Amino acid sequence: MIKLDNLTKIYADGTEAVREVSFEIEKGELCVLLGPSGCGKTTTMKMINRLIPATRGEIYIDGVRNTDLDEDQLRRNIGYAIQEIGLFPHMTVGENIGTVPVLKGWPKDKRSKRAKELLELLRMDPDDFIDRYPRELSGGQRQRVGVARALGADPPILLMDEPFGAIDPITRVELQNEFLKIQQEIQKTIIFVTHDIYEAIKMGDKIALMKEGRLVQYAPPADLLYRPKNEFVAGFVGADRALKGLQLIRTKEVMRRDFITAKPDEKVEAVRERMEQEGVDQLPVVDNEGMFIGWVFASDLDKGEAIKDSLSTSAVTATRNEVLNEALSLMLTSGSKVLAIVDRDNRLEGMLSYEAIQGALMEAAQKEEPR
Amino acid sequence: MLEAYRFVIRHPEMLAKWVVDHLWISFVAIVIGVILGVTVGIYITGKGKQQLADLVLYFAEIMMTVPSLALFGLLMLFLSLMGLSAIGFLPAVITLIVYGQLPILRNTYIAIREVDPVMIEAGRGMGMSERQLLLKIKLPLALPIIMAGLRNAMMLIIGIAAIAALIGAGGLGVPIFRGLRNARMDLIIIGGVSVSVLALMVDGLMALLERWITPAGLKG
Predict the structure, then answer these.
(1) Of A1, A144, B58, B129, which residue has the fewest beta carbons closer than 10 angstroms?
(2) Which tens digit of pLDDT belongs to each residue from B76-117?
(3) DSSP secondary structure letters along B140-209
(4) Residue B215: closest CA among chain A residues belongs to which residue?
(5) Per-residue pLDDT, B111
(6) What domains, with CATH codes, occur in chain B?
(7) Closest of A235, A192, A233, A191 to residue A215, by C-alpha
(8) Are A324 and A247 in contact (CB under 8 A)?
């Protein structure tokens, strides 16, 4: 557990970067520090590992004041990932990940075992990547290695300063999803800095919203959205907060699981009949193993004898852990009315329709307290 | 040209001695110069040493502008006052060290100062001590630029070492100045060409060394 007690930072020139900030982060929780630039969120984070010394106030880590610990030892037990990633260009991926383990004096075989483990955790093939240099990686791969490096010596606490900031939006969403999955497994105590409200809502167990060095509201994302403490919070989360609330819901919570399908070898007539019975104009096509192949549309049924002749295979899919607003944007950009939800092996698990999203939206709007 | 060739054929041992002397003075000067220059260069990148750094670099620049002959003269005076040998090897090496300092010092200083602050922040944030930051991050990243300064210094030193013959330190300056005194074109050519060839060869070797020690991740 991390406890910030009256934390204050005043710079030599009199700038008050952080003013009397107090809150607690439970073990295994992901706490997002959110706010506009210059609100003191990064300064607050850097006071935890003492990259910036606090002017007043204390930080306790599991009951021990962080200033009572040796500075370097403290930092070696707190993983650190930054926006610019900062991979060392003269070291391989394996050596980068092994930075803290080397400082901690781990033997070589333990280090390389750990590096391989972490690469696998972040879905990078160790044999392919461990000996590569940072310049031989794509932006997304660098971010992954940056996260792996922060996890290098398996620290109980992670500080992440806009860790997914420097990549394109698609890779970013992908990494966010994967990181959430990883966090479920590793259960670290995480302080995550971002200025992106969407990222904060999606990633945070709790959000600490800051403004001009002060903590404005510290609450779970849903509370921040639906029970904003004051005008600033309401303004920051925005008028479209119901829409933002879609970030809090995953496709598996609203998708239809009792769907009917068609098989590629089926005769067109049988399928047309089924569509008419159900009152739908498209059906998902799956093979005998239940793998999703594509859609068949009522308007295409005249193209041939079997379903496979009128099949459209260029369909977009999502996974059950996709958050609703991303699923929605997938539907909007691909122009499909229904989204197929598949598992990792492309097995069809469910269907997501506009109606389902609308229902979730209306439910979320009801949570809002009248103001 | 022909005379020069005949001379070399007749007296290969003389040319060999000049070359060996020349290389030896240069080698000693560069080794001491690198140790001194890199150490001082790293030292003046430290926190709160900005003024000292400016002063040191300014001083090194001034030393470069002093004509080498004048520097030899000054050193002879200085060394004899200290009761040390005022001619020969010692003053020659000291002068060459001084001339090599500016490129080594300046490149070391700039290279270390210019290391991406993100790297330093990452290193420090993961718990590296100042010493580990220097050895594991700053020096390896600065190495290519330091090496460029070293090559630069090497060229300077091999060239100026020819003048060391004037204070009895031997080397390829011997045939050059002897030729000048006696209007012997062949000796001047032998000395001059040898210095150039030597400089090019050493530069080639340094280029190889540079490739060899540049960290693999930094090679383009």
Answers:
(1) B58
(2) 888 888 888 778 888 889 989 998 999 999 999 999 999 999
(3) HHHHHHHHHHHHHHHHHHHHHGGGGGGGT--STHHHHHHHHHHT-HHHHHHHHHHHHHHHHHHHHHHHHH
(4) A90
(5) 95
(6) 2-215 (1.10.3720.10)
(7) A233
(8) yes
Q: Is A100 touching B (CB cutoff 8 A)? A: yes
The model carries a pTM of: 0.78
How does pLDDT run across B50-68, given as a tens digit for each residue?
A: 899 999 999 988 888 888 8
Gyration radius from chain A CA atoms: 24
Residue A204 near residue A219, CB atoms below 8 Å: no
Q: Show the tokens assigned to B184.
A: 């012997």
B70 burial level (CB within 10 Å; 0-12, 13-18, 19+): exposed
Q: Interface pTM (ipTM) of the complex?
A: 0.81
Concatenating the DSSP letter of every residue in B11-23 gives: -HHHHHHHHHHHH
Q: Which tokens go with A44? A: 């607050």
Tell me the two tokens of residue B43. Answer: 């030292």
Q: Where do the DSSP E strands lie in chain A?
A: 2-10, 16-25, 30-34, 56-61, 64-65, 78-81, 157-161, 189-194, 206-211, 214-219, 282-286, 292-297, 311-312, 317-318, 338-342, 348-353
Contact A76 B126 (CB under 8 A): yes
**What is the C-alpha separation between A173 and A330, in angstroms, rounded?**
12
CA distances (Å), origin A253, targets A180, A320, A341, B27:
17, 8, 12, 75
Find, in chain B, the residue whose alpha carbon is nearest to that of A47: B125
Closest CA to A37 of A166, A213, A186, A274: A213
Q: Which CATH architecture has domain A2-238?
A: 3-Layer(aba) Sandwich (3.40)
**CA dist., res. B206 & res. B148, Å (int):** 9
- The one-letter code for the residue type at A354 is Y
The answer to whether A91 faces chain B, any CB pair under 8 Å, is yes
Per-residue pLDDT in tens (0 to 9) along chain A, 371 residues: 999 999 999 999 988 999 999 999 999 999 999 998 889 999 999 999 999 999 999 999 999 999 999 999 999 999 999 988 999 999 999 999 999 999 999 999 999 999 999 999 998 999 999 999 999 999 889 999 999 999 999 999 999 999 988 788 888 888 898 899 899 989 999 999 999 888 998 899 999 999 999 999 999 998 888 888 898 998 888 767 777 778 888 888 888 888 888 888 888 888 888 888 888 888 899 888 888 988 888 888 877 778 877 888 778 888 888 888 888 888 888 878 889 999 888 899 999 988 888 888 777 766 665 44
CATH (one of 2.60.40.10, 3.10.580.10, 3.20.20.370, 3.30.70.1450) for A252-361: 3.10.580.10
Domain spans in chain A, listed from the N-terminal domain onward: 2-238, 252-361
